[in-house]
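User: Round two. Same drill as before: sequence, then structure, for each protein.

Assistant: Same drill it is. First protein:
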Amino acid sequence: MRSIGLVDLPTFIPAALSSRQKLTRRWLTSRHEKKIVLLQDSFTGSFDGALIIRTHALLSGLGYDVRVTPAWSNGKARYVLGFYNGFAKAGRHILRKVRVIERHNIPVIALDAATGLMFEQEYCELGQSKPPAVWALERFLRSEIENGHIAPRSVATGGDAATILSHCTEQAVRPESAGDWAFILKSFGLNVSAGKAGCCGMAGMFGHQREQADLSKQIFHQNWAEKAEKPILATGFSCRCQTGRMAGYRPSHPVEILAQALERPARA
């Protein structure tokens, strides 16, 4: 990758899914209750695969019958680079796949904000019918709690309060995202609050471009460095990756903290 000017790329750590975790045609037509599909994005599924597995475990533990899609290309990188034909091909492919799931009236849930928001933004440019509905994970979980489909319970916790920082795309388009995560985690007794931060300096592949390395670092120290000195939870793959590069540790995703808490015995 150095030959094309990309440096410090994340290590390839794909999600190791079992056959019982993968989406299949047979499962789509089966008569199970509380079925949901987790949309696996190519970044998280390729470089932070343990989070996909953790999310599946969390949702299963909350009583859902969960299956995970393959890491379908969403065309985001092509769109950003201006390769519209390649984006359109990838976009139409993933739209066909998700429409098949939608026909079975099964909720499709996106863990990654940038991927989920494409169904509300970029895919609308393809000139087809309205894209299928894809839930943001935090919006889905909050709705299920508020409608009584998930019964929260208080869990024993310790340590300092953590601040939830959402991806800058989420902050621009879904500013309530961090608040939704705070509502969910607080429903289970976790000590968290919703925070705000500017761009972490990764911005897709920008932070991995050799000629942008200094600027990427400058942006992180301007917007994230001080916040990262205290306990934070980061919803964005790029935010976790950039913090790992610049601050020396990877912040947890809210899913990981909630899943870990639910593994503890309930508070008496």
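Second protein:
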Amino acid sequence: MMDSQWNFSALKINLGSFTIFPTLLWNKTNALLVDTGMPGTLAALQEAFAENDVPFEKLSAIIITHQDLDHIGSLPELMEASNKRLAVFAHELDKPYIEGTKPLLKLSGENLTAEKWASIPDSLKPFYENPPSADVTHLLTDKAELEGYPGIEVITTPGHTPGHVSLYIKDKKTLIAGDALTCIDGKLAGPVTQHTLNMEEALDSAAKFLHYDINTVICYHGGIAAGNIKEQLKAIITK
């Protein structure tokens, strides 16, 4: 019988201009990583594994919540560093962007304004011009358990991007929100308007979380929020 009991840690990774919180999940047999940071984050991620006493060699799968560069950036590095072929999970709608067959939505067309381009540090512009990519091996489906990893439920949460997903860790009553929510000083906040492609859809997605018994939320931007989660969600949705 496969182990459905999961430990988790929100990995605090300082990228200089901002901090991110990828999530490490592990049990007796496997470790999973949710999102990968910007290009060049591999060493910091490996250090975070060690700080949690999780051997990097235990990593068996990576879940990508969506296509943005700060989530897919170190995916190829992780795959190259692994001693095995890693499973890569993502939603069908974001798959072609992660695989590089389509340009990242926020880095092309009307979404990339001159003002946005000017705000990107020169050292990062090559990554925006030629984003890292990797094959997606498994597709994520709404309300389904993560294939091969019982106890983790997929919640499709479009809005931030069309194929954005969040994850619910059942035994820990913990939501891995990705960018569907943010956290400020331990309190939940809504999706960031300037980085969200469809805010109405994003708020509809946030409303889906009301159907879950959640004690803790991990936001990729802001870290952990806990306590009165439903009340905090209602305030965001009805704002």
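The longest strand covers residues 59-63.

User: Perfect.
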